[in-house]
């Protein structure tokens, strides 16, 4: 049973590193695509990147020194939860912006229809 626990622990550790690697890749691509200035203006992105880099660094360090004890590192679990909270806030913000875009498009169509109606009425008067 001990070897199964060890296998599961190692598997979860490497899955964690793989997921964090994807998040680090996301940060690198954001910096490449949007520029470093984007992170200076978007404080949430900077905090998110900081949490991911710290978590990734700790995971790699633990892997390198073969540390099995998490004493004093419970904070990293809380920091990982930050990623979940961040994703929820991004989804809520996206939803709000999406609805604003829909409202803007509806307003624009209404204005076009009003302008067309006014143009037709003016043409009938002439």
Description:
The chain is mainly alpha-helical and 126 residues long. The protein folds into 2 domains: 1-36; 41-124. It contains 4 helices and no strands. The protein has helices at residues 2-34, 36-41, 43-65, 74-125. Helix 3 (43-65) packs antiparallel against helix 4 (74-125). The longest helix is centred in the last third of the chain and has 52 residues, at 74-125. The termini are far apart.
Q: Assign an overall shape.
A: elongated
Helix content: over 70%
Could you report the average pLDDT, rounded to the nearest whole number?
A: 78
How many separate domains make up the residues? 2
Order of helices and strands: HHHH
Distance between the amino and carboxyl termini: 92 Å
User: What low-confidence regions span 5 or more consecutive residues with pLDDT below 50?
Assistant: none
State the total count of DSSP E strands: 0
Beta fraction: under 5%
Rg: 25 Å
Main sheet: strands, sense, barrel:
none
Brief sketch in words of this structure:
By secondary structure, this protein is mainly alpha-helical. The protein has helices at 2-34, 36-41, 43-65, 74-125.
